[in-house]
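Format notes (please read before filing issues)

Several people have asked whether sequences and C-alpha cells are stored in separate files. They are not. Every record keeps both together, in the order shown below: the sequence lines, then the C-alpha cell lines. Line labels are part of the format and must not be stripped during preprocessing.
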Amino acid sequence: MTGTEIAAIATGIGAIVAALGVPKIAEAIGKYRASRDAKIVELSKKLVETQQKLNELEIKLSLILPIIAKKNASDPDIMHLLSSVIDVSDINTTPAPNNGRK
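Then the structure lines:
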C-alpha cells in the first residue's frame, strides 16, 4: 500500500464517520441550546421576582425608617444606626409631596 492509498482510505473512513456523526452532533447542539435558553428564561423570571421583592422592601423601609427616627430622636445610637442604614442602602426617606391634597 502506498501513502496515497492509505490517505484515500483514511479520507473515506473519515467521511463515513462524519456523515454518521453529524446528525447526532447537531441534535446534541440543539438540546444544549434548548437547555441553555430554558435556564436563561428561568433565571430571568427569578431576577424579576427578586427585583419586585427588593422594590417592596425599599418602599416598606422608606415608610418605617422615618417613623423609627422620629420616635427615637433622643437616642444617639439608634439615630447613628438609622443614618448608616439610610446612607448605605440609598433608600429615599423623604416624604413625597402632597400634590395639593389635604
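For reference, the curators noted about this record: Residues 3-71 form the longest helix (69 residues). The helical segments are 3-71, 76-89.
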